[in-house]
Specification:
This protein has about 100 residues and is α+β, with helices and mostly antiparallel strands. It has one domain. Helix content is about 25%, strand content about 10%. The protein contains three helices and two strands. Strands 1-2 form a two-stranded antiparallel sheet. It starts with a strand and ends in a 12-residue tail after the last strand.
Length: about 100
């Protein structure tokens, strides 16, 4: 498991689909059917977070079943995103109880 994650700031450097910034996995892993529909797989968050009409970002609209479910879930995940005026960055996480920042 990675020891660092991207932290969201002004959305200008984090890859929307390819980096871990929301949850424990990249969005392309969490929502593969919607990722497959996106016209710009290298887009940054600023190009997707506040988008009003996804029909301009996707090759076609999600069709029932898994695609519609994943699209709804993606919208729920990104609707709670809180931005800041600071730049995007990195944050270190301590996943091991044996390791901490004070040890040498």
């Amino acid at each position: 498991m990675s020891a660092c994650k991207r932290t969201l700031g002004d959305e200008n450097s984090i890859k929307f689909w390819g980096e871990v910034w929301c949850g424990d996995h990249p969005l392309k892993v969490m929502f593969p059917r919607i990722y497959a529909l996106d016209e710009n797989k290298w887009c940054i968050e600023a190009q997707r977070i506040n988008i009003r009409d996804w029909k301009y970002a996707l090759r076609r609209s999600p069709r029932g079943g898994v695609e519609s479910s994943q699209f709804s879930d993606l919208m729920a995940v990104i609707s709670d995103v809180a931005l800041s005026d600071s730049g995007d960055g990195w944050k270190w996480y301590n996943y091991s109880k044996k390791w901490n920042n004070k040890e040498k």
